[in-house]
Amino acid sequence: MKKTISLMLVAMFAIAMVITGCKKYDEGPTMSLASKKGRVVGQWQLEQVLYNGIAQPVDPDWANETMEYKKDNTWTYTNPSGSMSGTWDFGDKKETIISTFTFSGISSSDTTTIIRLKSKEFWTKDVSGADTYEYHYKAK
Fold first, then answer.
1. Are 126 and 49 in contact (CB under 8 A)?
2. Which domains does the chain have, with CATH numbers?
């Protein structure tokens, strides 16, 4: 009986270690049955911006801005003034997203770090010098 209880405790401990080890992004989720691409694809609306960990006032115009990632690895950003589009792909073991676009004949790319990726939440982080920006999106 003691041996059975000991084996159960060891098994539970091992399972707990595997589950916590599966966490890819800083803010979660711990596990997901949906693929990472399946969770990124969709329309996203900016909900909150943090600058060096401090929430910034939310501009009401953000309600009219949409970022859409598509299955064919293209993206479109739309706001009341117009839109921009390009291509995207995962980078660095699917911990970053690399977005490319062409504007006035000049190609450019941007890399952002994913810190949370759920079916209804998508958080990214960008570091510029000593400044950190977090962008929290919700599914539209």
1. no
2. 34-139 (2.40.128.280)
Q: Choose the most confident range, by mean pLDDT, from 7-16, 43-52, 58-67.
A: 43-52
Round to whole Å and give the CA distance between 125 and 51: 10
Task: Kindly report the pTM of this predicted structure.
Answer: 0.75
Alpha-carbon distance 49 to 129, whole Å? 18
Whether residue 62 contacts residue 78, with contact meaning beta carbons closer than 8 Å, is answered with no
Q: 139's torsion region: left (phi>0), alpha (psi -120 to 50) or beta?
A: beta
Residue 44 contacts residue 138 (beta carbons within 8 Å): yes
Three-state secondary structure along 44-104?
Answer: EEEEEEEECCEECCCCHHHHHCEEEECCCCEEEEEECCEEEEEEEEEECCCCEEEEEEEEC
